[in-house]
From TrEMBL:
Domain Band intervals: 20-180
Name assigned to this protein: SPFH/Band 7/PHB domain protein
The species this protein was found in: Streptococcus urinalis 2285-97
Gene3D superfamilies noted in UniProt: Band 7 domain
Alphabetical list of SMART domains matching this protein: PHB (SM00244)
Pfam families given in the database record: Band_7
InterPro entries found in the cross-reference section: Band7/mec-2_domain, Band_7, Band_7/SPFH_dom_sf
Origin: domain of life: Bacteria
Length: 296
């Protein structure tokens, strides 16, 4: 019985030795091993052996994965507008410089924030508010380069810096919206005015074309009438009816006059017809027409 208890004791001691000797490091993580408070080595992922009973101690486990820090910075632009900038910074520990990342810097996120604030407060006051909105990607890249250079001495790599939001003062933002709305209204008014102008010009051009075509039609109609009269006179002369040219012209003009009256009276839109009230009215009209022709 006594020997059994001794065996259990030694088994327990062996278990403690094994448990204090073996340790596991997870993937994308490294372990800082110290011996009596002094740096001994950096253990990568996997199972490892160390000196037992606290001789070798795991001082820290450092993450190698990509980390992100959200930072809010308030600053002022060149045109004296206060703005709030939301910055997203992605960073990680340099695998080749884990010792500096652990021993040189206690709070890396706070240090990164300080560098970013300093860089932004140096860059943003050189730009107006409009320029800040236009060049925010360029500013983010410039800040990234400045911060990356500073943090590299501490074993950190700045992967990406983004300005995710630019928020001006509330009153300035409202004024910008009002200015934008006024500009859009002015453009809309100009477009409406141009549309009305196009309508008026198009209508005038259509009316002018209508008048021109109407004049062409009347001219062609008169030409056709004159050509018809000339043809009729020629035919009557050639038929040897024993009439003079003046008599032939008188008959044709009288006939044309009567046809015109007939056409005028046959239209529904014509409600009133004015005629000479003397018995010799047709004769007078014929005489007047002939006199006008002779005068020409």
């Amino acid at each position: 019985m006594f020997s059994f208890l001794i065996l259990l004791f030694w088994l327990f001691v062996a278990f403690l030795i094994v448990m204090s000797t073996l340790y596991v490091v997870k993937q994308q993580t490294v372990a800082i091993i110290e011996r009596f408070g002094k740096y001994q080595k950096t253990a990568t992922s996997g199972i490892h052996i160390r000196m037992p009973f606290g001789i070798d101690k795991i001082a820290a486990r450092v993450q190698l994965r990509l980390l992100q820090s959200e930072i809010v910075v308030e600053t002022k632009t060149k045109d004296n507008v206060f703005v709030t900038l939301n910055i997203a910074t992605q960073y990680r520990v340099n695998e080749q410089n884990v010792i500096d990342a652990y021993y040189k810097l206690i709070k890396p996120e706070a240090q990164i924030k300080s560098y970013i604030e300093d860089a932004l407060r140096s860059s943003v006051p050189k730009l107006t508010l409009d320029e800040l909105f236009e060049k925010k990607d360029e500013i983010a890249l410039e800040v990234q380069h400045q911060v990356a250079e500073e943090m590299s001495t501490y074993g950190y790599v700045i992967v990406k810096t983004l300005i995710t939001k630019v928020e001006p003062d509330a009153e300035v933002k409202q004024s910008m919206n009002e200015i934008n709305a006024a500009q859009r209204k002015r453009v809309a008014a100009q477009e409406l005015a141009n549309a009305d102008k196009i309508k008026i010009v198009t209508a005038a051009e259509a009316e002018a074309e209508k008048d021109r075509l109407h004049g062409v039609g009347i001219a062609q109609q008169r030409k056709a009438i004159v050509d018809g009269l000339a043809e009729s006179i020629k035919e009557l002369k050639e038929s040897n009816v024993g009439m003079s040219e003046e008599q032939i012209m008188s008959i044709l003009l009288t006939n044309q006059y009567l046809d015109t009256l007939n056409n005028f009276a046959s239209k529904d839109s014509n409600n009133t017809l004015f005629l000479p009230n003397t018995p010799n009215a047709v004769d007078d009209i014929r005489t007047q027409i002939l006199s006008a022709l002779k005068a020409k």
